Automatic annotation (TrEMBL):
GO terms for cellular component: ATP-binding cassette (ABC) transporter complex, substrate-binding subunit-containing. Keywords: ATP-binding, Cell membrane, Membrane, Nucleotide-binding, Transport. PANTHER family: ABC TRANSPORTER ATP-BINDING PROTEIN, MALTODEXTRIN IMPORT ATP-BINDING PROTEIN MSMX. One of its GO terms (molecular function) is ATP binding. Belongs to the ABC transporter superfamily. Residues 4-241 form the ABC transporter domain. InterPro entries: AAA+_ATPase, ABC_transporter-like_ATP-bd, ABC_transpr_FbpC, ABC_transpr_MalK/UgpC-like, Mo/tungstate-bd_C_term_dom, NA-bd_OB-fold, OB_MalK-like, P-loop_NTPase. SMART domains: AAA (SM00382). This is ABC transporter ATP-binding protein. It comes from Marivita cryptomonadis. Signal peptide: none annotated.
């Protein structure tokens, strides 16, 4: 287990980068706690895998350092970092049995066969492959091979960190849930530092203690699932987390009110004068359809998804999503939407500002 420090870290795939736009990974300065479980979450191309490969030693950064427990490992080869990494697509030894694949990392480090056998049995049970231990990996399905990869990554107890790069891509949906549960149990039992790369918010939110949201090569917020939901520090976090994502509307903010189009809504706190691109953000869960209160909207359709209804509406050319309870009344004469003032966030140039006008801590991320 290790505390991982990213010190002035950045990376460009170009030989001579001249501007920030040339960097696939923009400057990062973060400490990730020893023994915590993190998820790197973001869209394809945001820098997640680049950062993971720098941590593992598969890629050397263009600038900055990476430290494990204060020791500079920036130029140390992967083997010296004492990490285990599981990739998006299965990497197995086809000519070996499932048992020998799982045992390989332990035998490679000289562990005695009694311990190897015990540990392999534990991992085989964890990944649901106890009855396949004697089978050769060749000829197994892609998801079975990926379970072997996961098992081989988890078989050692003494690693500094376990790194997962979208490891459940080829796994069937039911097994995804099972394996996520097992990964959580593994973390609880052994306290490994875990970093899990994914573009799937459900995977990230159910796996991690803290989610690291990345956008355009930079970390825009690190927080618990609750923090990401209630106080998105960047409009991308609000858009990417949640289904549907946060409603974002251009606004003019003045003190305790925001003018949205031709209408004015109330805010929970006062804001100093703002300039630049000013927007308000409010999640669909905190929007309410009514007959007379709030912004006049046109309801385009209602989607009943069982546990709740998603109401798709528009206001002066802007889409607004509203979530109503399954038993909430929705009728044709309900054509206004109001927002809970305490749940309305104000953004300037995509970053959340606090009610007194001071920049949120999220921008520093």
């Amino acid at each position: 287990m290790a505390k991982i420090t990213l010190d002035n870290l950045a990376h460009s795939y170009l030989p001579n980068p001249t501007s920030e736009d040339d960097f696939a990974l923009k400057e990062l300065n973060h400490d990730w706690d020893d023994g915590a479980a993190y998820a790197l979450l973001g869209a394809s191309g945001c820098g997640k895998s680049t950062l993971l490969n720098i941590i593992s030693g598969l890629l050397h950064p263009s600038q900055g350092r990476i430290l494990f427990d204060g020791q500079d490992v920036t130029h140390a080869p992967t083997a010296e970092r004492n990490i285990a990494q599981v990739f998006q697509f299965p990497v197995v030894y086809d000519t070996m049995t499932v048992q020998d694949n799982l045992a390989f990392p332990l035998r490679n480090r000289g562990r005695d066969e009694a311990y190897v056998a015990e540990r392999v049995q534990e991992i085989a049970k964890m990944i649901g492959m106890e009855d396949m231990l004697k089978k050769k990996a060749r000829g197994l399905t892609a998801d079975a091979k990926q379970k072997i990869s996961l098992g081989r990554g988890m078989v050692r107890k003494d690693v500094n960190a376990l790194l997962f790069d979208e490891p459940l891509t080829v796994i069937d949906p039911h097994m995804k849930w099972e394996l996520r549960t097992q990964l959580k149990k593994l973390h609880h039992d052994f306290g490994h530092t875990m970093i899990y790369v994914t573009h799937d918010q459900t995977e990230a939110l159910t796996f991690a203690d803290k989610v690291v949201v990345m956008y355009d090569g930079r970390v825009v917020q690190i927080g618990t699932p609750e923090e990401l939901f209630e106080r998105p520090e960047h409009t991308f976090v609000g858009y990417f987390i949640g289904s549907p994502g946060m409603n974002v509307l251009p606004a003019e903010v003045d003190g305790t009110t925001a003018k949205v189009g031709s209408q004015t809504i109330q805010l929970a706190g006062g804001y100093k004068p703002t300039s630049g691109k000013v927007e308000i953000g409010v999640r669909p869960e905190f929007a309410k359809l009514s007959q007379t209160e709030g912004l006049p909207v046109t309801v385009r359709r209602i989607e009943d998804v069982g546990r709740h209804k998603i109401i798709r509406a528009s206001f002066e050319g802007h889409d607004i999503n509203i979530i109503a309870g399954e038993d909430d009344r929705v009728s044709a004469d309900m054509n206004h939407v109001s927002f809970d003032p305490a749940q309305v966030n104000v953004y300037v140039n995509d970053w959340r500002v606090a009610p007194d006008g001071a920049q949120s801590v999220g921008e520093a991320a």
